[in-house]
Amino acid sequence: MKLLKIATFLCLNASISFAQTTAQKLENAFRLLENDEQAKYAITSLCVLDANTGKIIFAKNENIGLATASTLKTITSATAFYTLGKDFRYETKLVYTGKITTDGILQGNIIISGSGDPTLGSWRYEQSKESNLLNQWTSAIRAAGIKKIEGAIIGDDRLFGTSTIPQGWIWQDIGNYYGAGGSSLCWRENQFDVHLKAGNDIGSNVEVIKTVPQMPYLKLVNELKTGANGSGDNAYAFLPPYGEVGYIRGTWGMGIKKTGISLSLPDAAFDVAYRLQDTLKRLNINCTEAATSARRLDLENKKIAGDTHQLLVSYSPSLSQIIYWFNKKSINLYGEQLLKTIAYKQGKEPSTRNGANAVINFWAAKGVDKKAMNMIDGSGLSPGNRITTMAMASILFHVQKEEWFADYTNSFPENNGMTLKSGSINDVSAYAGYYTNKNGNKYIAVININNYSGSGMSRKLFQVLDALK
After folding, report:
1. pLDDT tens by residue, the chain, 469 residues
2. CB-CB contact of 109 with 102 (8 Å)
3. Which residues lie closer than 8 Å to 112 by C-beta, 6 or more apart?
4. Cα–Cα distance for residue pair 186/269, rounded to 1 Å
5. How many CA atoms lie within 13 A of 169 on its CB side?
6. Where are the beta strands (DSSP E) in 254-298?
7. When you count CB atoms within 10 A of the terminal residue's CB, does the N or C end of the chain come out lower?
8. Cα separation of the two ends of the chain
9. 408 phi and psi, to 5 degrees?
């Protein structure tokens, strides 16, 4: 009789456990996260929707605005698809001013005029690679019969103005590749590499072996010290926009396998002009004046001639291709360029603020509460962004019916066996995306925690989302 009672009790418990709804599983898993010691002083939010109906499966703190980190890219990219179109391409024009004499002397300047293309010179796309573009540009110059330039190569960066860094970005990020500022004329994703070699003793100097490419016009002050074996990369660059002097600080661990770090390019428009002029020089097509940019000329009270003659138009990859890498590799520069482009295409000044307002107003027109979206930038790098998980989940639900939806979700990385965009900045960890379980049930999930302590939070967020499996 006693054994029968025990068997009955176990069967009853198993039946109750089996009968637990997805909502109950999520609630229990979320409660465990909230009670975790790492979340003691944190704010945690979760919103899970039925992807077919939009009905809330489970939500907690879903209307509290939180720093999003890179999950904000899901909103920026969706808005770009709507407002620009999946086949949108940026144009970069190579033009010249003045005239070409019969003996091949250009009495004027060659201008690289940008429209905001973040992929110009990028290694991710064959058509945009630095070597390919330089070859195309030099070929176009030669085809025009130009053998000498009585003038300069000018990077025209006027379209987006001189404010390259969104307000709200922190000093520790600016100067490093992920904090690269944008302009209407970008180059090599506005970054360059610094190769490093640790010393033989902890605290000894770290050697800067070289920069790639060489940066003869930039002075880097190396204050790096060697870290303990296994301490890894704790090196940060402090290099302001348009600056010519930068500092590298922190530690570089012994035994590290990385070759070095990537820094932000302080003046991309100048650099692309410099690279083209240097390439022409090696082809014996010399300029009488130094490479420069529209911004630099403006500081000298000089203007670019209005009458130009077109040499070549270079096109970026399609928006679908751009967004693939934007979300897959979480390239912050792309988000900032897209935000300004959205504003520009709506006839507004292409600023970060106008782009953010355009995004918010776009979704407000589709029923998302404006007060649930406080955007500082387009990438999520600013800790000042505040978006609710409900607002983000609503946007993810809305886009499912669009013809570009497959391109959109294809850009999301796979995390925890789910199609989830991740986000991580200081004491912020978040995921947003889609999941179809083995029974064919489709879900939209957005989970976010701010101000947690310690490390390894992603694993604990996945334990909550595992309730959907």
Report:
1. 444 444 444 444 443 444 589 999 999 999 999 999 999 999 999 999 999 999 999 999 999 999 999 999 999 999 999 999 999 999 999 999 999 999 999 999 999 999 999 999 999 999 999 999 999 999 999 999 999 999 999 999 999 999 999 999 999 999 999 999 999 999 999 999 999 999 999 999 999 999 999 999 999 999 999 999 999 999 999 999 999 999 999 999 999 999 999 999 999 999 999 999 999 999 999 999 999 999 999 999 999 988 999 999 999 999 999 999 999 999 999 999 999 999 999 999 999 999 999 999 999 999 999 999 999 999 999 999 999 999 999 999 999 999 999 999 999 999 999 999 999 999 999 999 999 999 999 999 999 999 999 999 999 999 999 999 9
2. no
3. 92, 93, 94, 137, 153, 154, 155, 156, 185, 269, 272, 273, 276
4. 6
5. 27
6. 260-264, 286-287, 292-293
7. N
8. 38
9. -65, -55
What tokens does 277 get? 């002029």
Which two three-digit tokens encode residue 174?
């600016």
Report the half-sphere exposure of 187 (CA within 13 A, side-chain side): 25
CB-count burial class (<10 Å; 0-12, 13-18, 19+) for 448: buried
C-alpha span between 246 and 452 (Å, rounded): 32
The full set of domains in the chain, from first to last, is 23-86+320-468 (3.40.710.10), 91-162+268-315 (3.50.80.20), 177-264 (no CATH)
Q: Are residues 170 and 69 in contact, defined by beta-carbon separation less than 8 angstroms?
A: no
Question: Please, are residues 349 and 343 in contact by the beta-carbon 8 Å criterion?
Answer: yes
